[in-house]
Amino acid sequence: MASIATTSPILAASPALRAIRSGADALALRPFELLHAGPPLNDPTRPPATLASSVVMTCLHEGWATSEAEAEELLHRGGLTLTPAQDRACVTPLAAVVSCSTPMFEVGAADSEGPAVWAPVGAVRGADTRMGWRDPALLARLRFRDQEVAPALQAVVTRVGPISLWSLAVAGLVHGDDLHGSTTHANLALASALQRLAAPESLVNDVQATPLFFLTLWMAASAWLLRCAEDGAASTLVTRAGGNGERFGISLASQGGRWTVCDAAPPIGPRLSHVAGGLAIEGAMGDSAVIDMLGLGGQRLALAPTVLTVFADHAEMAADLQQSPPQRLLTQPHPNAARSLAGGAGCRACCDLAATSARNVGHAGPRRPDRPVRSWPVPAADITVQACAAA
User: Crossing angle for the helix pair 184-196 and 213-227, nearest 10 degrees?
Assistant: First the structure.
């Protein structure tokens, strides 16, 4: 179990949005280089279908290809370099990939220029590459993000300085967000903050109209908070986690980013009503698991009524979770969070969590949206035992 000494840096930290930078400026990404979620791929030239679709659309957006077929050929012949985002202090949601021109949230301490974690700025008013859709309209949304949304956000931060994120997250928690499956109220708090800071009305409206815009910003904050515990001390605190559709991996505070991985089995659970029942489901994908490792997301499910209502047995689930809350598996209450939020998942916590109800995200092919599921999508007990043995 993670010790109090290990988690104290997390409890003392306060994440802030410090800048918006391109992937080239923030992470020294070069053309034809892409970052993906989770651990390394088995074969970067043959990624899962959902991820491949995101790669194709990114190639078209960057101008590296002029057609889907040309982008697929570039991928399959090894003309692209695909590596894990978390190995570069970056987190990316679901199937989204990060390229040299991707605008990135920079999150770190407000009062220093110390280490940061980056995450991609999402498109507004519609899906972006995280969904793995080959929708031609996506390219226009990506251009608008790069040319309008990101510069407007950077102008605000340049003028007013770093923007604290805890108060926005707490506003979401108080109103029933879990800050993973639901960020609606935290996102409204972000839009309100931008309005108070005299951001352009168009930016405020775009953020307000995109309920999950806050998600990647909070992913970066969660990853940064967890990495505050990576000081080299022997610890079984899980500080990195994510899936690439093939494998799911974690890394402990003492392991310096070394992945312990297992197969990412397809999630099991109810599908949204518009998703066909016969579609194949890919394995767990995305770096947003860092939110759950911080004690939010699925571990906050008992207090997230909007997310719970997706499940037919939501009343029973809520009662079960209230009687045996996942928070008991975590290490410390966070002084800045609502309702005695516990934070920091140790290896024992993840082993126990494998036997409880948990929420995660799955996909059904390259053009289908995400859907909440009931069961943990990877053998969490096995993977955490392996990580502890290697610590």
Answer: 90
**In the sheet that 285-286 helps form, which strands lie side by side, from edge to edge?**
260-263, 247-252, 238-244, 285-286
Look up residue 41 and give its DSSP letter.
-
Query: Is 23 exposed, middle or buried, given 0-12, 13-18 or 19+ CB atoms closer than 10 A?
Result: buried
3-state class of 352 per DSSP?
Answer: helix
Bridge partners for 35 per DSSP: 83, 98
**194 token code pair:** 């931008």
Domains of the chain with CATH codes: 15-221 (3.90.1710.10), 231-390 (3.90.1700.10)
Rounded Cα gap, residues 137 and 146, in angstroms: 15
- Under a CB-based contact definition with an 8 Å cutoff, are residues 363 and 264 in contact? no
Order of strands, edge to edge, in the sheet holding 103-109? 117-120, 103-109, 15-22, 163-164
Residues 256/372, Cβ–Cβ less than 8 Å: no
- The whole-number pLDDT of residue 390 equals 56
Residues of the chain with pLDDT under 70: 1-7, 232-234, 272-274, 312-315, 317-391
User: Which residue from 232, 230, 210, 282 is spatially nearest to 41, judged by alpha carbons?
Assistant: 282
Number of neighbouring beta carbons within 10 Å of residue 253: 28
DSSP string over 273-319: TTS-TTS--BPPEESTHHHHHTT-GGGGGGG-HHHHTTSTTHHHHHH
pLDDT at residue 330, as a whole number: 47
Alpha carbons 194 and 187: distance in angstroms, whole number:
11
* One-letter identity of residue 76: H
pLDDT value of residue 280: 79
Containing 9, the helix (H) or strand (E) segment is: helix 4-12
Which residues make Cβ contacts (< 8 Å) with residue 7, sequence separation at least 6?
229, 237, 331, 332, 343, 344
Nearest-angstrom CA–CA distance, 348 and 208: 39
Q: How far is CA 58 from CA 219, 243, 352, in A?
A: 21, 20, 39
In this prediction, residue 384 carries a pLDDT of 47
CA 273 to chain centre: 24
Instruction: Give the containing element (helix H, strand E) for 362.
Output: strand 360-362
Q: For residue 377, what pLDDT is reported?
A: 38
